[in-house]
Sequence to fold (498 residues):
Amino acid sequence: MCARSDSSEARAPEHSTLCTTDIFPGPSRELHPLAVGMLAGIMERSLRNFLVVSFGFLLLFTAYGGLQNLQSSLHSKGGLGVATLSALYGAILLSSMFLPPILIKRFGCKWTITGAMGCYVAFFLGNFKGSWYTLVPTSVLLGLGAAPLWSAQCTYLTVLGTSQARKAGKLSKDVVNKYFGIFFFIFQSSGVWGNLISSLVLGQTPNKEFFSEDQLKSCGAKDCLMSTAASTNITQPSQKLVYTLLSIYTGSGVLAILLIIMFLEPIDDNPPSNEGKKSPPLWSTLLSTFRLLRDKRLRLLIPLPLYSGLQQGFLSGEYTRSYATCALGIQFVGYVMICFSAASSLCSLLYGKISQYTGRAVLYALGTVTHLSCIVTFLLWQPHPAQMAVFFILPGLWGVADAVWQTQNSVLYGVLFERNKEAAFANYRLWEALGFVITFGCSKFLCVSTKLYVLAGVLTLAAVAYGTVEYMESRNPHPPPAAGGRDQADEEEAQTQM
Fold:
């Protein structure tokens, strides 16, 4: 999948000699000696590195996902939890503008991922002393590391999948789609483990909430700033249980960093075909994120990542507080979110396999219809403990559609903007972060019903914009490169590298 910047599915020549070792120069360069001995001969290098990235993210987001879902409930006093998330995603918004291309070019994907994971661990530590002086600064630090982390991950998997496709003579978009599908299957399962841990730990509290009918009337779409029921319905767990939970999460984050340092091989950012070429100046790298906005397709796709951030923020910030915690209690937050994570994880794997048969458009249509149906249900439903099954079914359906945005958005950006992957993924994280900022920033000022109407409007706009881009691509097909064109293959190989 190394075509022009406006190509979407060029086929690699079948006789191309590029193999996965081309992007991993030397005998496991910069790999820990212990890892070399343990992994030698066990599995092919490309698969090995793919699994290291996937399970590194699994460990890290087992901790972060569970903790994020509890922020608005665990630190509800004075709106600290929501303010923390707002600062976090505001920092992601800023870092997406310039940090990812600079850090990836200078340090490579491996060390960008490693350093960014350290920012997450700092945030976990900041939660031990839940105050404005610890949570806000560490959330900003996490935000600065989040955009480079995801951009490096997307770049790493795209290069890995493209290289594997060339080796097998397959369509790059199919292999990359499969890679992202499996990755998000593993990654989204982190929500299952993270939420299960939080529910088991916090479920040990001796206080079980019982809510009056008057309190329950203020839950759900009727939850507004002037209503106090949603916040007064929260019984805080003991400090000992909170410390136990945070210790488990911090340990999981540290293990993720060690896994990446010891076992992940860096992708060569100076392939032989690019030797002797001068690196672009710092200012050029700095502005690459904004320069790519000159591409009409990227501007049209802005509502897509924006909605991705809005819908994730709604579920983790609004649903957990105004529906689950308000009507059931904080100890149920983890359990209901497990349904979301499990559905999203399984569907990510499924979509990665069937997308080559159904195409992207069918999956996007499925996600749009599913989320619109859920939004209507959220507007009409009055949460009540007697309707226990609904609390689990709705997050599950939300996860079915979320898997579409997580897998197909990443593949779409990797295919459409192949020659500018770092800048494209930085743009994606920028607009996605803006969606989170809007959700958490407006959390205390808008009723839940208003937020749901905004979600429906942005989703409709995103669907129309995506359809327009697909139509533009169908009107500008690009033929596959001619077989036997070795010079062209060499040129495409160079474009694939970082």
Observations:
- The chain has one domain: 42-270+291-476.
- The first helix runs from residue 33 to 39.
- The two ends are 14 Å apart (CA to CA).
